[in-house]
Amino acid sequence: MRPVSSLLLAFAAGAASVLAYAPFGLFPLVFVALAVLAALLARAGRARRGFLLGFVWGLGAFLAGVSWLYVALNRYGGMPAPLAGLAILLFCAYLALFPGLAGALFARLHPETIFARAGLFAALWVLGEWLRGFVFTGFPWLAVGYSQTPPSPLAGFLPLVGVYGVGGLVALVAGLLAFAPWRRLAQAWPGAVALLVLAVAGVALGRVAWTAPVGEPLRVALLQTNIEQGLKWQPGRLADWLDTNLRLVTENPAQLVVLPETTLPLLAEQLPEGYLEHLEARMNAVGGDLVLGVFTRNGQGHIHNAALSAGRSPRQGYAKRHLVPFGEYSPPLFGWFYVLADIPMSDQTRGPARQAPLALGDQRVAVNICYEDLFGAELLHALPEATLLLNLSNLAWYGDSLAQPQHLQIARVRALETGRPMLRSTNTGMTAVIRPDGSVQAVLPAFEQGALRTEVRGYQGMTPYAHWGDWPAVLAAAAVLLLLFPRLRRRPAPSAGR
Asked: Transmembrane region positions (predicted)?
């Protein structure tokens, strides 16, 4: 295959991999997309060529999968269209560096056996995605393990090894598909057996109940305000938004009522006198608790994206601790970015690293705000005390795009990893209740104002992932590299006549 043709094929395979995620749900497609990359890398010959193949594959995946960020920069951030497009291209190119690095290392080394090649490909993929998840605060969106929610048989591995571990299994399967000599069945059968074992083991693990319900069913009302992002920060509309939130709380009494992230677009100290007390009185009247998103200011004058509770339980709060670069704070040397984009409340401060779950009645509710639920290991500090996970989000920034269903799928993975229900209250979607097995119990239609009223149970117990986090997957990948190292040799450079 010509060099340009192989690059185009890698780009197309990366872009096609997005169809494996929500809302499309074609989860087997990611195995094929990664197998195409693995097969191309096996013939790359040089590290430079391997880097280009991995980079182009990643560029296709991220341009197809997260280009909805353009909506936030251009439509709501006010950045001119050419600059917003360039910013997204550069950001996707940065994300593509990680599969590019994995591709370069794979092409440079040359295991002799099929299983060694597949193991090397999987180990490098795990380490690449793990690094992408924390370098420069991390952006693990579209880690391939997120595509394997039920009905994928690999979903059963999520409570054991988390999203990166499952991503490694996906890469292992892709490697076996790419490297096995399927035309010679006598040599291909070990790979076929390995694939069958993984599928059967995943199905069996999916039937294991790692956690158990505790306490009585809890009546919840998850509110979806559906306030258009372009109108939210207009001072003349503030009274309307205050009335909307108060009306939704009043019309939907429950033991736990939740309003979404920054549902009140101002500091708590700027609320009209008696407003919060009025909400609290409504909740006390029905014997329930309210959790709402609002900005707060601490004693040092720093602003937090926060959640506050009000009702029968003592007032408590949570301050977002994993902030969005360029949206909620400016990284060093990037102050010029805010000359081009107009983003309200973009000078926030992260909350403390360890914050106790909210004690609301008999439940212990671990709050996370917006994209904090991308970072599964960071949610584990609340366990085993937390019985429920609660996400408050505002994805109105991204319009009617893939962001909403992709984020819901990420929340499904977090429920599986922790063995806890995940409750989601969002501004425009997708407001939902997710069971500990990753299935969606109920969800509201996007871009409609309403309330999701249902019952949930708190859960107790610890999954293996809740005990150990991402370290088993990362250490296993590192161990594979160490075990293979004596067998690895540099791939000979192709001769000039080839």
From this structure: 25-44, 51-71, 83-107, 119-142, 154-180, 192-210
